[in-house]
Design brief:
The chain has helices spanning 42-49, 74-78, 96-106, 112-125, 141-153, 171-186, 198-204, 222-227, 232-242; strands spanning 2-13, 16-27, 31-35, 57-62, 65-66, 81-84, 159-163, 190-194, 207-212, 215-220. The protein is α/β, with parallel strands linked by helices.
């Protein structure tokens, strides 16, 4: 069953046509990887799915909810959609646990004890239970990103969006974040990931979507897209990253 169905998504920033009729379908429990050169519209597409960006045209349904309907309570709908950004966006004056429980208390209205129980469980899932009392400044970048993942999964979303989750990290810290994402996938979380981590895409993705110039050029299994790309644009991109 499809959890995310985006059809004919267009996005204009003034005269710039960033998304040109993009379709994206994500089935339940799938990990879909969106790759492509910088400026191809990957992050804009992701941000349209939860309406951080307003699409200029098209239709988006997430977990049965019409995201573009004026009758949709967008804040409530967003609770089903976890989002992890390139920057961690943690509150520096709050502990790891405080950062994770804030939305549980403010958005879901949980009492402190219940919020802390769920927050601790979320930190445990990203292997940071022992860092619950640490402030962001006492954590590595990779640990901070894992706190951000814990904050998102604590709300028990139906789908998780990851926008370049490792690009701000030093190379040696990337592994812990990818491992947390891999475990989420094993637990059955539906995920849409925009990232340059091609080895991770090859190993973990169910489907890879290659975008260029605001459109989907090609999509398929990792073996198809990486091993036997059909389109010249895809071949050139795969060849380029293969040389890095």
């Amino acid at each position: 069953m499809a959890i995310v169905e985006a059809t004919g998504i267009h996005k204009h920033f003034g005269a710039l046509h960033v998304l040109k009729g993009v379709d994206l379908v994500v089935e339940e429990k799938q990990l879909v990887f969106v790759i492509g050169p910088s400026g191809s519209g990957k992050s804009t597409l992701l941000r349209c799915l939860n309406r951080l960006e307003e699409p200029s045209g098209g239709a988006i349904v997430v977990d049965g909810v019409d995201m573009l309907s004026p009758r949709t309570d967008i804040n409530k709908a967003r609770q089903r959609i976890g989002m992890v950004f390139q920057s961690f966006n943690l509150y520096p004056h709050m502990t790891a646990l405080g950062n994770v429980t804030l939305a549980l208390r403010k958005v879901l209205g949980l009492g402190r004890a219940e919020a802390e129980k769920r927050g601790q469980a979320a930190l445990d899932r990203v292997h940071l239970a022992d860092r619950a009392g640490h402030f962001p400044g006492q954590l590595s970048g990779g640990q901070q990103q894992r706190v951000a993942i814990a904050r998102a999964i604590a709300l028990e979303p139906r789908v998780m969006l990851f926008d370049e989750p490792t690009s701000a990290l030093d190379p040696e810290l990337v592994g812990g974040v990818l491992e947390a994402m891999r475990e989420l996938r094993q637990d059955g979380m539906t995920m849409v990931v925009v990232s340059h981590e091609m080895a991770f895409a090859r190993a973990a993705a169910d489907r890879v979507v290659f975008m260029a110039d605001g459109a989907v050029v090609e999509s398929g299994t990792p073996d198809e897209v990486f091993g036997n790309p059909q389109h010249e644009r895809t071949k050139a991109f795969i060849g380029q990253i293969g040389r890095h």
